């Protein structure tokens, strides 16, 4: 097979592992800097160019689109889909996952556990939003944030109100969520591939940080998840339409709640914590399921 990986940084651990796993199985792999792909949008003849040269035919594309280039990255992925290239995750599904508000609404409609979440446009409704989220402390999140950036803990009603009003004054969209105190600064990353849970780890934040992101100084360890947590992760992946994703859960007093569904999960932390060949599992899934033109949306939607 000939596989393309859409990624800006070819040297990241996750991307190198995917290349190694694919080449070990005899596949040809190209890492394409997403921002250097040019699109020729022509009726009946969609084409893509890379550094000025027309791209050949690929059997599959692995989108590793950074949050900061979501708009252009999805446009490139849609072009590949229109050209009949099978995507590991489809553009529409990635778009859902990148919109925090939309993803929360989709998961809520499916009846999945979520932290109480409030959203409003008018800064005058700040008091109502804080009250809806259960009162201080509350977690305030930028809709466009990722990897813990743009996530603030409002420990008191006064501080929460100040942060919310500051963000809204800058015309930035935010979500306000209840703070799950009983989680104790830890969360669970469940990795789903092809409708199966293949690995899970517990992430613990740094001593002075309520966020558990590994790149912010957190640590990870192997964990055995409950049947309810497994079911929640699988249902979340299915509802979002993602073949591969990381589902981030918190253990609350009323069961597992979903913090985020990540369409481009990092592999380094979970491979090292679990000792599993996650990259190999992803390539195996591609081998078993990729077919030319087999894309539900074909670039639509």
TrEMBL record:
<dbReference type="GO" id="GO:0018169">
    <property type="term" value="F:ribosomal S6-glutamic acid ligase activity"/>
</dbReference>
<feature type="binding site">
    <location>
        <position position="260"/>
    </location>
    <ligand>
        <name>Mn(2+) 1</name>
    </ligand>
</feature>
<dbReference type="GO" id="GO:0046872">
    <property type="term" value="F:metal ion binding"/>
</dbReference>
<feature type="binding site">
    <location>
        <position position="248"/>
    </location>
    <ligand>
        <name>Mg(2+) 1</name>
    </ligand>
</feature>
<dbReference type="Pfam" id="PF08443">
    <property type="entry name" value="RimK"/>
</dbReference>
<keyword id="KW-0479">Metal-binding</keyword>
<keyword id="KW-0689">Ribosomal protein</keyword>
<keyword id="KW-0436">Ligase</keyword>
<dbReference type="GO" id="GO:0005524">
    <property type="term" value="F:ATP binding"/>
</dbReference>
<feature type="binding site">
    <location>
        <begin position="211"/>
        <end position="213"/>
    </location>
    <ligand>
        <name>ATP</name>
    </ligand>
</feature>
<feature type="binding site">
    <location>
        <position position="248"/>
    </location>
    <ligand>
        <name>Mn(2+) 1</name>
    </ligand>
</feature>
<protein>
    <recommendedName>
        <fullName>Probable alpha-L-glutamate ligase</fullName>
        <ecNumber>6.3.2.-</ecNumber>
    </recommendedName>
</protein>
<comment type="similarity">
    <text>In the C-terminal section; belongs to the RimK family.</text>
</comment>
<comment type="similarity">
    <text>Belongs to the RimK family.</text>
</comment>
<dbReference type="GO" id="GO:0006412">
    <property type="term" value="P:translation"/>
</dbReference>
<dbReference type="GO" id="GO:0005840">
    <property type="term" value="C:ribosome"/>
</dbReference>
<feature type="binding site">
    <location>
        <position position="260"/>
    </location>
    <ligand>
        <name>Mg(2+) 2</name>
    </ligand>
</feature>
<keyword id="KW-0067">ATP-binding</keyword>
<keyword id="KW-0648">Protein biosynthesis</keyword>
<dbReference type="InterPro" id="IPR041107">
    <property type="entry name" value="Rimk_N"/>
</dbReference>
<feature type="binding site">
    <location>
        <position position="187"/>
    </location>
    <ligand>
        <name>ATP</name>
    </ligand>
</feature>
<dbReference type="GO" id="GO:0009432">
    <property type="term" value="P:SOS response"/>
</dbReference>
<dbReference type="InterPro" id="IPR013815">
    <property type="entry name" value="ATP_grasp_subdomain_1"/>
</dbReference>
<dbReference type="InterPro" id="IPR004666">
    <property type="entry name" value="Rp_bS6_RimK/Lys_biosynth_LsyX"/>
</dbReference>
<keyword id="KW-0464">Manganese</keyword>
<dbReference type="Pfam" id="PF18030">
    <property type="entry name" value="Rimk_N"/>
</dbReference>
<dbReference type="GO" id="GO:0005737">
    <property type="term" value="C:cytoplasm"/>
</dbReference>
<dbReference type="InterPro" id="IPR023533">
    <property type="entry name" value="RimK"/>
</dbReference>
<dbReference type="InterPro" id="IPR011761">
    <property type="entry name" value="ATP-grasp"/>
</dbReference>
<feature type="binding site">
    <location>
        <position position="262"/>
    </location>
    <ligand>
        <name>Mg(2+) 2</name>
    </ligand>
</feature>
<feature type="binding site">
    <location>
        <position position="260"/>
    </location>
    <ligand>
        <name>Mg(2+) 1</name>
    </ligand>
</feature>
<keyword id="KW-0547">Nucleotide-binding</keyword>
<feature type="binding site">
    <location>
        <position position="262"/>
    </location>
    <ligand>
        <name>Mn(2+) 2</name>
    </ligand>
</feature>
<feature type="binding site">
    <location>
        <position position="141"/>
    </location>
    <ligand>
        <name>ATP</name>
    </ligand>
</feature>
<dbReference type="InterPro" id="IPR013651">
    <property type="entry name" value="ATP-grasp_RimK-type"/>
</dbReference>
<feature type="domain" description="ATP-grasp">
    <location>
        <begin position="104"/>
        <end position="287"/>
    </location>
</feature>
<feature type="binding site">
    <location>
        <begin position="178"/>
        <end position="179"/>
    </location>
    <ligand>
        <name>ATP</name>
    </ligand>
</feature>
<keyword id="KW-0460">Magnesium</keyword>
<keyword id="KW-0687">Ribonucleoprotein</keyword>
<feature type="binding site">
    <location>
        <position position="260"/>
    </location>
    <ligand>
        <name>Mn(2+) 2</name>
    </ligand>
</feature>
């Amino acid at each position: 097979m000939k596989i393309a990986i859409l990624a800006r940084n070819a040297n990241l651990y996750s991307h190198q592992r995917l290349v190694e796993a694919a080449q070990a199985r005899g596949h040809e792999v190209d890492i394409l800097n997403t921002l250097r792909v040019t699109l020729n949008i022509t009726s009946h003849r969609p084409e893509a160019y890379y550094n000025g040269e027309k791209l050949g035919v690929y059997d599959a594309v692995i989108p590793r689109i950074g949050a900061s280039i979501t708009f252009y990255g999805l446009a490139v992925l849609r072009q590949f889909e229109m050209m009949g290239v099978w995507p590991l995750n489809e553009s529409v599904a990635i778009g859902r996952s990148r919109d925090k508000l939309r993803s929360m609404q989709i998961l809520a409609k499916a009846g999945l556990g979520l932290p109480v979440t409030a959203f409003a446009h008018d800064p005058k409704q700040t008091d109502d939003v804080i009250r809806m989220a259960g009162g201080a402390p509350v977690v305030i999140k930028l809709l466009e944030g990722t990897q813990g950036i743009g996530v603030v803990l409002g420990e008191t009603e006064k501080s929460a109100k100040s942060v919310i009003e500051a963000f809204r004054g800058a015309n930035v969209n935010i979500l306000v969520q209840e703070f799950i105190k009983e989680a104790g600064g830890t969360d669970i990353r469940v990795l789903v591939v092809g409708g199966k849970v293949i690995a899970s780890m517990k992430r613990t934040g740094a001593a002075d940080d309520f966020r558990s992101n590994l790149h912010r100084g957190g640590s990870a360890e192997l964990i055995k998840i409950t049947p309810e947590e497994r079911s929640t992760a699988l249902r979340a992946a299915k509802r979002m339409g993602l073949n591969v994703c990381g589902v981030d859960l918190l253990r609350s007093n009323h069961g597992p709640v979903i913090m985020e569904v990540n369409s481009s999960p990092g592999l380094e932390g979970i491979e090292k914590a679990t000792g599993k060949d996650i990259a190999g599992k992803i390539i195996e899934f591609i081998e078993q399921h990729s077919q030319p033109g087999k894309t539900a949306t074909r670039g639509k939607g």
